[in-house]
Amino acid sequence: MEPAAFCQGIQGHGPSKNNEEAWHYHAFLKQGWSRVGEVKGDSGSYSQGLLLPRLGREILWVEDPIALEELVGRLAREARLAVDLEADSLYRYRERICLVQVCSAQEVALIDPLALGDLKALRPLLEDPNLEKVFHGADYDMRLLKGAGFKPRGIFDTMVAARCVGAKRLGLSDLLEERLGIRLEKRFQRADWSRRPLPAPMLDYAVRDSCYLLALRDSLVSELQTLGRMELARAHFLALEKIEPLRRNPPNAMKIPGARKLDHRSLAALQALLEWREQQAREKDVPVFKILPSETLLALAREKPSDLKSLLGIPGVTKKVAELWAEGLLRALQEGLKRDPFVVLEPPKASQNPPGSRNRFMALKQIRDQRAKEEGLDPGILCPNSLLKALASYEPRHLNQTWEELLTAWQQRLLGEKFQQVLSGSSHKKYQRSK
Known about the structure:
The chain is α/β, with parallel strands linked by helices and 435 residues long. It folds into 3 domains: 3-240, Ribonuclease H-like superfamily/Ribonuclease H (Nucleotidyltransferase, domain 5); 253-337, HRDC domain (DNA polymerase, domain 1, Orthogonal Bundle); 357-434, DNA polymerase, domain 1, CATH 1.10.150. Helix content is 47%, strand content 12%. It has helices spanning 3-6, 65-75, 113-116, 123-126, 138-147, 158-164, 172-180, 200-211, 213-227, 230-240, 264-284, 294-303, 308-311, 319-337, 357-375, 379-382, 385-393, 396-399, 403-406, 409-423, 428-434, and strands at residues 23-25, 33-41, 44-53, 59-62, 80-87, 97-103, 108-111, 132-135, 155-157. The protein has a 7-stranded mixed beta sheet with strand order 1-4-7-6-5-8-9, with helices on both faces. The chain has a two-stranded antiparallel sheet with strand order 2-3. Strand 6 (97-103) and strand 7 form a beta hairpin. The model is unreliable at 1-52 (pLDDT under 50).
């Protein structure tokens, strides 16, 4: 179905608060669901009754609070939902959630946060641990939702699940093509989702980006269960619930690549330029890179032009840039040069690790890497380095108190015996000799 037909009615007769029904049912053929027989996974074929949504279904555009409440009431009765978010991080100083796609076994809804004002009505769905929410690459979406005040629970991430079955290609389009024979276009990944009305091809993209997630989830669950790795995946899903929200840190000259080569006076100038750029971006509501790239600010701090002629000699400062920013740049640069020299603060020293912890960590890593290779897994998905470091830092006499908390039963079965040998001091000396 062509995008124009797929989204018929959205733009020309599109969402309007004057619509008494508040729902906007678009022109789709009601073809229901199609059944898929055999799905091929990385470790073999799995016969199953997967349900794939045909795109001939009614799609709901939700921009009215009453309509959203009614939608939430229906979706709360489902066992699981597919969820996806679209934001405008490449176009705004502070990114916003611009579209929420929610797909159940019965319907697909495109929820417009910009028209609604807030999404608090979704809290019962997002925070219910017994209602599974299926995302793909949930990390960024979790940060957006946390920033909006939600504490999502009951997460299933198809990208994480794919890593747990040993998939090599983890993109949504790749997984759908390999497992379900569906190829997605990704040309709107970097689009401005704050546009209104959204063009028909973008609406088509938004629906397709979410409506296959439930079928993909079923394919991956079948393989996880066959491989005995469901417990491993669940542990990673729970970790997603602890992700911190997106936070904007103040500009810091020492974070700019190449800044450490500058002297302290030039660093002070760079810091002033970064603060000027931050203010401009905030006032104009655009990302900082759309004001000027960091490389240009670094060159300005290094060369210290004092007039328009010398400013135009700086790489990245075109005539257009000078027309827009010359006065502000020269003022910020001069203000920075009047500051006290920039003081480079040394990072605090890490706390002293227990004796032998480095050798224990390297021995644990060697065991983990070998077992991951045998299982066909990414080492980080089997047991991340942060967990290895935590294990290695415990003194053997204290380890039993935390062993059950740190490792899942699945990890204990695969790694426990050799890990305990290392942590008891009986085998990490072998690693030392091998080096």
